[in-house]
Specification:
The structure holds two protein chains of two kinds. Chain A is mainly β. Chain A has strands at 3-5, 10-14, 19-21, 24-26, 32-39, 46-52, 60-61, 64-69, 74-79, 88-96, 107-108, 112-117. Chain A is built from no helices and twelve strands. In chain B, strands 2, 4, 5, 6, 9, 10 and 11 form a seven-stranded mixed sheet that branches. The radius of gyration of chain B is 13 Å and the shape is globular. Classes of the chains: A mainly beta, B mainly beta. Chain A binds chain B through residues 33, 42-47, 50, 52, 91, 99-111, and chain B through 3, 31-33, 35, 42-45, 48, 50, 55-56, 58, 88, 90, 92, 94, 96-102, 104-107.
């Protein structure tokens, strides 16, 4: 079975600085998708960034970028120029590409609580 | 475009009772997934429905069930509630495309006394 591990329960960053959140996963599959989700205190989860395992190029979305190391099964999230609104729980998630079109079955890590200091 | 709507937002039940939670997906979305979120276990996948058919199911006992209607609205039911069922239940909808983004609702907070 696949597992996702986030080893940092809490992280803190100064406003305008850069922070990296770690995520490792375990799978025997070669084709899969990886995601970072953000859950602000209001609890509505939103997608931050996603990466297809067959793509070697790291995904980037504005201030958010990932470092995807497939051989090491590592998928870290870098947030540049941190803003107060970035404070939230961040979840790393894995989805197999073998579920015949099923999008809903995500395996989540336990999350990292990010605080942003003004 | 309205987001994913979950009702009720908060509810309190006692052990042995049953509960039904509702989820209205984004208009046009045909896939609805349910997750249970607890401090101890984190986010765990319950099941996914697509066009009224259960497409995937997580590792939960048979007390947890769901269904999807022709308008894509979905309900989940938990029977014979246990204290450990206290959780935030999240619903997510997607278009059904291969890499369709999941859009989450704000959740239904269930407390079992």
């Amino acid at each position: 079975a696949q597992t996702v591990t986030q080893s940092q329960p809490e992280m803190s960053v100064q406003e305008a600085e850069t922070v990296t959140l770690s995520c490792t996963y375990d799978t025997s599959e070669s084709d899969y998708y990886l995601f970072w989700y953000k859950q602000p205190p209001s609890r509505q989860m939103i997608l931050v960034i996603r990466q297809e395992a067959y793509k070697q190029q790291n995904a980037t979305e504005n201030r958010f970028s990932v470092n995807f190391q497939k051989a090491a099964k590592s998928f870290s999230l870098k947030i540049s120029d941190s803003q107060l609104g970035d404070a939230a729980m961040y979840f790393c998630a894995y989805r197999s590409a073998n579920y015949g079109g099923s999008q809903g079955n995500l395996i989540f890590g336990k999350g990292t609580k990010l605080s942003v200091k003004p | 475009k309205a987001g994913v709507t979950q009702t009720p937002r908060y509810l309190i039940k006692t052990r042995g009772q049953q509960v039904t939670l509702s989820c209205s997906p984004i208009s046009g979305h045909r896939s609805v997934s349910w997750y249970q979120q607890t401090p101890g276990q984190g986010l765990q996948f319950l099941f996914e429905y697509f066009s009224e058919t259960q497409r995937n199911k997580g590792n939960f006992p048979g007390r947890f069930s769901g269904r999807q209607f022709s308008n894509s609205r979905s309900e989940m039911n938990v029977s014979t509630l246990e204290l450990g069922d206290s959780a935030l239940y999240l619903c997510a909808s997607s278009s059904g495309e291969l890499l369709g983004e999941l859009f989450f609702g704000e959740g239904s907070r269930l407390t079992v006394l």
